[in-house]
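Reviewers asked in the last cycle whether our approach scales beyond single polypeptides. To address this, we selected a multi-component target totalling 157 residues and predicted its structure end to end. The input consisted of the following lines:
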Amino acid sequence: MKNPIEIRQATLEDIPEITSIFRNTIIHINKKDYSEKQIKIWASGADDLEKWKERIDKFYFIVAEVDHHIVGFAYLKNGNYFDGLFVHKDYQRQGIGSKLLRIIESQVMSNDYQVIKSDVSKTALPFFDNKYYEVIKKQKKNLKGVVLENYLVEKML
Ligand SMILES: CC(C)(COP(=O)(O)OP(=O)(O)OC[C@H]1O[C@@H](n2cnc3c(N)ncnc32)[C@H](O)[C@@H]1OP(=O)(O)O)[C@@H](O)C(=O)NCCC(=O)NCCS
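The resulting structure, written as structure tokens, was:
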């Protein structure tokens, strides 16, 4: 990528771009690992605007920008529980996920934790493996009555 990736804290005005990335990344990128029904339910989480507002208000929530457009986001819940990492479908494999993760890990360290934990999708597992995260267990998450498989991973910082 030629232009630099800038990281900043998310604001409530970013919600339309963030939810659009969330929906489109699930529909286009995660679809290779999940059924149509699972993708539909998961992507519909984009519509819960109150929940996105709460995440931005309460969590450590950052966005990555290229040319002033949001191309990815990440947020940290409860000090060391990394709850979300999504990169725009057209900007995959350009180092954006790595940059967001580095900043999230620094934040966990400054919160005085030595371990970071996350629930990650099947799609994201090779990325987290590349970053030396260890799989603790495979698990099932119930989303509005539909079960999605993911992995609990952790890494010592
Ligand atoms: C997982 C995700 C955030 C990674 O973001 P990214 O910006 O594409 O990742 P990077 O470019 O920083 O990748 C760094 C390295 O991780 C590894 N990696 C990333 N994606 C990979 C994949 N699909 N398969 C294999 N290795 C992968 C590679 O080693 C890569 O380095 P390389 O491109 O030089 O080979 C992104 O693919 C994504 O948005 N996935 C869908 C959403 C999702 O499932 N998020 C997790 C929710 S729980």
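Residues 96-110 form the longest helix (15 residues). We regard this as preliminary and will revisit it once experimental data from Aim 1 are available.
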